[in-house]
Amino acid sequence: MSVTNFKTENNTLRKLFGNGLTYNIPRFQRDYSWDLEQWEDLWSDIIETMSVDGDSAHYMGYLVLQSTNDKNFDVIDGQQRLTTCSLLVLAILNNLKKLIESGDDPENNKQRLEQIRNSYIGYLDPVTLISKSKLTLNRNNNRFYQTYIVPLSNIPQRGLLASNHLLRKAFEWFDRQVFNYVKNSDNKGQVLAKFVEDLSDNLFFTVITVTDELNAYKVFETLNSRGIRLSSTDLLKNYLFSILDKEQVELSAFESTWDEMVSKLQSEKFPDFLRMHWNSRNDLTRQTELFKTIRKNITNKKDVFSLLRNMDEDLYNYLALICPESFESKQEDKETAAILKMLRVKQPYPLLLAAKRKFNSNDYSVLLNAIKVISIRYNTICANSPTEQERVYTSIANKISNGSIEHLSEVWPLLKPIYVDDNHFKFDFVNKQIKTTDARSNKIVKYILCQLEYYLSLNKLEYSSERFNIEHILPQNAPDDWGEFSFEESENMIYRLGNMTLLHSGANRELGNKSYSEKREVYKNSNFKITQNIASEYSEWNAQSIESRQKWMAKQACTIFKVSQLS
Question: Which is it for strands 72-77 and 58-66: parallel, antiparallel or unpaired?
Fold first, then answer.
């Protein structure tokens, strides 16, 4: 990002609203949504800055603006904070207005009101009483804000949008706080004016100014990578809607469908869905390049509605992959999708979206199961780089989408590069450690052990069940004298797959750190075949026993986790 397209500085509220600067919240930004919790937090922080022993300033966070002239700015991120600050200033003006109406130092307070309004809110046309505001809100909130709140007129109580009710409530809440702040003061007007001065100097923002949407999107990517969540979804929405800006009927139709999709996905999941959808129909695009790519390819009304229709077509199928427990589909597909979710493997989603559109239900299920097996081999056990895997999946998805692949049989040869062969899979399985100290890894190990049990006994187990859990034969907190393990061996062997088996929860708790000879007696009577086998095969438990058992497990796993079409 060139320096000329990107500027960062710290600004106080005084500087932000001074010098004739104006701020426009794009028409299709989300509505005002702050409520009592945020109002109280902001008020407490402001009062803290004004106390004798409090902090002299309060940091309001990042403000992302877009402008080409440094005078008029579109607010890309920060509208809730700017809007709330303006409501607070208007509440102060309303208290000054009430002082004037009650005859409390009317001439001086009128001067104060006009000065503060001109500096921080804008001015009222003396003939029409229409506000020329420094801040313009979005399409749902602006008329209410400019018609009722800015002029400090009577605000209607009924028939309002939910966000306009929030604007009204915020204004009235701050109005009460300001009244209580000055009610015991001798010169209330002077205290109110001083409050505004302190407020404008004590609140400061980190302001990032960019020249276009593409640079704004890059800012989002940078800040999000640092854990600061900004709404790239809103940014993309603003761009797409700008193409339709004068087509009111189309705008309404687009907005309704768009908002419904975002609501189902939630804002933070939407960029992931958009990328998976895009890659299922186009060449592989990285997340950092997605906005640029869409802006390049979506340039007119026809493109926008085509994108919308295609996204709507893929949405349900995507939700069935990321939230399989909440969406109707074949039971076997739900179970397989749940395993992919547990493995945190997203690379195949573009292929699965394309396959869902093209293949019949049975072929889709066969492919979904094959991808599960590929993921266990490639990702979970062998821990290979996902970059090449993603390239392969996306390439196949594109071939399905453009019609060059019509049948599932044509997919198998293209998947072979990411299907780990038995020799490599077995080698990595034999040496695999998975720390079971977090819930996800614990589930993965339970799933692998349950699959081994099913292979041996045909006893199908639900790996998420709490009736049984993972037994670490060499205990996780083994005392120094446990078995024949040195300290180093113990550290290296506890989380080897060969050291883990299944045991009912009660028996597991009772065994704890007991010796192997005591554990072995319990294993003999276990309901799990893999656990009985330990007792019958190993008279003692040491490093060699773990190595031996893990080799045996690896051999079984090659048969269990196999795609016959790829082997």
Answer: antiparallel
